[in-house]
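Cross-check.
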Amino acid sequence: CKSELAIRIDGKINPDFKINNLISKDLSNKFSKKWNGICMNCGLFQDFLIFNLEENRKFCSELKSKDLATSDENFLKFPLDKEFIKKMENIYWEKRIRNWESFFTKKNIIPKNALFIRPMFGAGPEFISNTYGARVGGLEISEVCNKTTCNRVNNYEPLNGQIHGYFEGDFLNNNNFDSIFVYHTLVHCHNLDEILKKLKNLLTRNGFIIFSDEITRKPSNPFHNLHFSETIFSNILKRHFKFVYRIDDCTNNKDPNVINYTTKKDAPDFLVTNKKYI
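Predicted model, tokenized:
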């Protein structure tokens, strides 16, 4: 809502990488500080000390891949270990994809041109391509995940652009996606309304967007700028889209940073559209 009136929440960040080894001092000083607070106007729990557009461009040019900013050694090599992918997809993707398929079947939804924002290990594009014969493409902030998806899904097209913090690039010139799948991206953004408007502009008239893993509160994570609850997140989505559909229980992970802030104590996805499904 752009208001700066907030109740400040004390706390420190807890990075799992050495910030000064990866980005310049002027950026690391700002990145390593948090001014987390709850907005007194809209109720959104957020960081009020964020990068502007030029700072974010510099940040992304210095931190070329999110793989460099993690202590998880799995992301430091390619190809990824198959058992690691299997484990992660059992937690985060198998139930999610089954629930997507069930929802699509009930609502007679058939994606034909799909955009993926952070496809991770490629399970989503693979499912949409194989099940519906759809065209699939997308963007990543992890070079290892991008390579993994490209190798896994034959017709997956890596698109040109930047999706970490702000959305920029050639992919924004396309406005004929009938489906967009956004995974754990809004929590990293610096201008929420701007990104939602840009996503909406990419859609066909009756297209939809699914937001996954956006309800989470980890204020100590230096990458997280927005700390949504389900109520606040749903209210924000309703300002931009006519209809918001909840897809229940999409992971096998009972993370307290997630389930404590959702109405059903689960990890839901949210499908938004301007078309009413019967």
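The mean pLDDT is 95. The CA atoms of residues 101 and 141 lie 26 Å apart. Passed to J.P. for a second look.
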